[in-house]
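May I ask for an example protein's residues together with how it folds?

___
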Amino acid sequence: MKKLIFSSAMSSVLALPAFAQDDRQPQIPSIPSDSVMQALSADSEKGVLKYLIDSGVRLTYLGDAGGLKGYLGESPSGKVQTFYVTPDEKHVVAGVLFRETGTNVTGVQIADMENRYRAAQRNAEIARGETDVEVTAVPEPAVTNGLSEVSIPEVQSGAAAQQDVSEYLSDRAGDGVRQDLESAAWFQVGVDDAPVVYMVADPNCPYCHRAWQDLRPRVVNREVTVRIILIAGLQGSEAKALSLLSRDVPSRAWFAGEGSTRMQPVQAPPAAGTDAFKNASRYLDRNMDLFEQLQLTSTPTLFYYDEEGTLYESDGLPRDMDAFLAEVAQ
């Protein structure tokens, strides 16, 4: 059984609903969220949530972990604090939740919440026809086990060190890798004249979602264009990858949150035996072959070339995306 550990400031625990100062406050959608209101209306005895709301705290549901329901709260003064409600729903702990492996569960939950918010905003923009981001389709062109997600302690703990782009210099033969990447079944998100970043991604990988969260504003600002090479190595990924690779314009679905966020649903793949299914399977096989050929072990894996043709590579989520992209061709 996985153990979970709380790390919280004593002042936050003893002075509810007081809040710890945090200059890096996440953006919060409309609050209280529907899930919070449903919880309250379902049982009038849920005193701890009602107490927080009556105290002026606005709550957004983050999800369940270790038997605890997590909420992000914002005080009337704008300070932010995470709360975890115990199973009896009569007690609450303010602080950060960690798994025994060191994973900052709270950080992952907040990132997922922000992704849901951005996805909802993006869907609204698409519905209103307000987006002008150019997208392209999959170029005409096996699922494996044992894939690992990169979990970087410095990112999880919030103590990421300063990085230099030289840390990302690849020791691979650049020209050969370029041909391999270009021949993969990628789809492109962004404009044709922006520098290209390749991202090998699994639609169920939370670190891929976080990498895309960092790359997305750069795509919108036309600083880079991202070519997504979808694979399926994590549990439940194959159907999602096949669904995306079967689309006429998979990059539009990705940009809207399908496969690029955890909470945005991905449409079911086409029926087995159809041409769309066969083509998507062929694209996925090609990408899985590339994954094995390059002896990759983690998702995401990112590649790009500078103006001189030097290859840079990140095996897993970069600790600092700005540092990683410092030499991207302009």
Residues 115 and 213 are 7 Å apart (CA to CA). The first helix runs from residue 10 to 14.
